Amino acid sequence: MTVRPRKGGSYAVGRARRTRILHVAMEEFAENGYRGASLARIAERAELSQPGLLHHFRTKEELLAATLDMRDDMDVERFTDADGARLTGIPAMEALADLVERNQRIPGLVQLFTVLSAESVTVDHPAHTWAHNRYRRIRAFIADGIRAGIASGEFRADIDPEAHAFRLVAMMDGLQQQWLVDAEAVDMAAVFRMYLYETLDAMRAR
Which candidate, 58, 162, 153, 67, places its Cα nearest to that of 111? Predict the structure, then answer.
C-alpha cells in the first residue's frame, strides 16, 4: 500500500523552500541590483532547478515584490508594542534608533534597500512604486508619532512633524550609504542615536 504524504507536511516543506528562495533572492538583489540579478543564479544558490524556482515565482518581478514584502514585514514589528499597537511619541522615535542598530547587524538587507532605492528613481523600474510608498509610509509613521507626542504634551506644539520626518529619514539614508561604503569609519547606530537624541531634546516640551 502506498502511503501518501500528509498535506500539512508538504505545505511546511513548500513554505520553507519559498522562504529559502526569498533569502537567497535578497542576497542576489543586494549584490547585483534588480537588472543585474539572475533567476538562474538565484535557483542555483537556492539549490533548485530554474523550473523549480519558477514554480514558486513565475517572474523576476514577482520574486522582487515578494522579497520587498518580506523586508517590509521585518521592519513593521519594530514599530509596534507588545500588544501590536503602533508606537507614538518618544517610543516611536527611539524605535528608529533600534531599527538602525538592527540594520547594522544585517548589511545585506541594508544593501538591498540602498541599491533598489537608487535604481528605482526611474518610473519604469519594478521597485519604483514600492520605494515611493515605503518612503511615504515611514515619513507618515514618524510624523504621526510626533503629532501624538505633541498631543500628549511630550513635544512642543510649534514643531513641524513633516519637516522632522524628512530630516530623520534623510539622516538614516545618508548614514546607511556611507556605512556601506566604509563601515570601519562609520558607527551608523551610534551616530544616528546621537542625532536622534539631539532632535528629541530640541522637540521636548519645556
Answer: 67
Alpha-carbon gap, residue 158 to 147, rounded angstroms: 11
How many helices (H) and strands (E) the chain has is answered by 9, 0
Question: In this predicted model, what pLDDT tens digit does every residue of 65-104 receive, in sequence order?
Answer: 899 888 777 777 778 887 878 889 999 999 999 999 998 9
Place of cell 533598489: 116
pTM listed for this prediction: 0.80
CA–CA separation, 63 vs 27, rounded Å? 12
Domains of the chain as residue ranges with CATH = 62-203 (1.10.357.10)
Asked whether residue 109 carries a pLDDT value surpassing 90, the answer given is no
Per-residue pLDDT, 63:
94
Residue bearing cell 523552500? 17
Residue 66's nearest CA partner among 119, 4, 17 is 17
pLDDT at 4 (0 to 100):
54
CA dist 22 → 3, 25, 63, 99 (Å):
31, 5, 8, 21
Residue 196 grid cell: 536622534
Cα 197 to its chain centre, rounded Å, is 22
